[in-house]
Amino acid sequence: MSGLRDKPVLVVGATRGIGLAVAKELAACGARLGITGRDPERVKAVAQDLKAWGAVLDVLDRAAIPLVISRFAEEVGLYGLVYNAGISPAFTRAEKLDPEVWDQVLAVNLTGAFLVAQAFAQRLQQEGSVVLVGSVLSLKDGERLAAYTAAKAGLWGLTRALALDWANRGIRVNLVAPGWTETEMTAGLRAHPVLGPRLLQEIPLGRMAQPEEVARMVVFLLEPENRYLTGGVYAVDGGVSAK
Ligand SMILES: NC(=O)c1ccc[n+]([C@@H]2O[C@H](COP(=O)([O-])OP(=O)(O)OC[C@H]3O[C@@H](n4cnc5c(N)ncnc54)[C@H](OP(=O)(O)O)[C@@H]3O)[C@@H](O)[C@H]2O)c1
């Protein structure tokens, strides 16, 4: 039986892609699951399907973040948190990057993670586990992805800082660093006749990850049995970060 059975776990950004795969895995473990998404219809459908608590949350709405965390704490409880929200709207050389796009990417991918984790830790009374979803670009260079790379590298710094600040409260914080994964985020790239095949050649295992393969690592880090793991980064990238 999973140690996550009956543990309250909230996944921020859980109605598609990697977040949805994490939510499904947690539901299968018997966790008391909460999910968020931006589209009310999708939130309702996923929550019904997984018998989960659901809330609409756009992390750009800063005031909403502590309200959603408080509602989840009161209605379900608190143990685990997964921050999966992330965007990658620009693939362009840095000198052409629109500063507004920079702000948006940093706001969703980095500031949102801090604000959600902070609200979670403010409400948590006992031990807990936080998993942030970074990227292989938390660890490596990201050509034509300056904002995304800066935000995801920032998440790795944030992971270590939070892990140290909260270790004496029994709150563990870890980072999962996926490589290229088959989701909507990579649909355009996978369909590209030149870039798609070239990308596969750069992955030592020769293929992209499935969202479920990333989800397994997220769930592993949440499990109470793995209580000695904090402040770490765990790549699920087919060998890309080893190069
Ligand atoms: N796919 C890859 O190759 C890859 C590689 C490395 C890392 N990652 C990271 O993995 C995570 C999941 O990505 P994915 O591949 O599953 O992509 P995806 O299908 O595009 O999903 C993106 C997720 O971020 C959420 N999100 C975006 N903007 C948001 C906002 N303002 N407020 C709240 N939620 C927001 C989305 O919520 P809605 O559904 O409500 O829009 C969705 O859950 C991201 O952090 C991404 O950077 C992905």
UniProtKB/TrEMBL annotation:
Any one GO MF annotation of this record: oxidoreductase activity, acting on the CH-OH group of donors, NAD or NADP as acceptor
Chain ranges of the Ketoreductase domain: 7-183
GO BP terms in the entry: fatty acid elongation
SMART domains listed in its UniProt record: PKS_KR (SM00822)
A Pfam family per the record: adh_short_C2
Gene3D superfamilies: NAD(P)-binding Rossmann-like Domain
Record CDD domains: SDR_c
Family in the record: Belongs to the short-chain dehydrogenases/reductases (SDR) family.
Record's protein name: 3-oxoacyl-[acyl-carrier protein] reductase
